[in-house]
């Protein structure tokens, strides 16, 4: 486990609920609420989630300016609320939690969102950084056109340099590409695989 058991307990104590996070967010508040309200589990999702024997804890490391957070944190919150099999806690990445975020680097640095999945006993099951692999491929398709339209941006330091207008453009692109359903299904699939692995271990 990249963080100690004690630091995990402390991080959970620092965390808040999804509703508390949305209530205090300064960016994308409407999008958080819209994506939550627009997410519905289908029969396949419910079948996967019903097979989970023990609840899974998810620590979501986030910041409210991030388009990926606006896109998929509400989806995970809805899965948690509707299934009863996920305990979601939200840890805002700041000076007090930076060590936790830095414990899960991707391409050499921490990213938001980072979702850390654990068993109820505290055993780490897996990590999803930014988005699931299926959605990563779909997002890459429109990011190519986004960067072509904004050559002033340095992709190697992305998302540094994004103005509020460009962040809003990215969220709008997410909505235009209708990823909510596929993203929900891919999160449910990941959760089911992690739960099955935990049961088999």
How would you describe the overall organization of this protein?
This protein is α+β, with helices and mostly antiparallel strands and 201 residues long. The protein has one domain (5-131, 179-200): Glutaredoxin (3-Layer(aba) Sandwich), CATH 3.40.30. Helix content is 53%, strand content 13%. It has 9 helices and 4 strands; from the N terminus they run H-H-H-H-E-H-E-H-E-E-H-H-H. The chain has helices spanning 5-14, 18-24, 29-37, 43-50, 67-83, 98-102, 133-149, 164-176, 180-200; strands at residues 56-62, 86-92, 114-119, 124-129. Strands 2-1-3-4 form a 4-stranded mixed beta sheet, with helices on both faces. Strand 3 (114-119) and strand 4 (124-129) form a beta hairpin. Helix 3 (29-37) runs parallel beside helix 5 (67-83) and helix 5 (67-83) packs across helix 8. The longest helix has 21 residues, at 180-200. It is globular. The two termini are 16 Å apart. The mean pLDDT is 92.
TL;DR of this structure?
The chain is α+β, with helices and mostly antiparallel strands and 201 residues long.
């Amino acid at each position: 486990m990249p963080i100690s058991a004690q630091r995990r307990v402390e991080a959970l104590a620092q965390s808040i609920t999804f509703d508390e996070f949305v209530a205090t967010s300064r960016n994308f508040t409407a999008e958080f609420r819209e994506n939550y309200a627009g997410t519905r589990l289908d029969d396949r999702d419910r079948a996967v989630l019903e097979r989970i024997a023990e609840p899974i804890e998810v620590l979501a490391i986030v910041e409210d300016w991030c388009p990926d957070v606006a896109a998929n944190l509400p989806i995970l919150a809805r899965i948690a609320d509707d299934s009863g099999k996920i305990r979601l806690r939200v840890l805002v990445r700041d000076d007090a939690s930076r060590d936790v975020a830095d414990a899960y680097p991707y391409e050499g640095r921490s990213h938001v969102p980072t979702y850390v999945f654990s068993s109820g006993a505290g055993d780490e099951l897996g990590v999803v950084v930014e988005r699931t692999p299926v959605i990563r491929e779909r997002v890459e398709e429109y990011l190519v056109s986004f960067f072509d339209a904004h050559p002033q941006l340095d992709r190697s330091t992305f998302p540094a340099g994004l103005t509020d207008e460009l962040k809003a453009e990215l969220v709008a692109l997410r909505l235009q590409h209708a990823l909510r359903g596929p993203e929900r299904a891919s999160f449910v699939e990941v959760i089911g695989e992690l739960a099955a692995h935990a049961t088999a271990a």
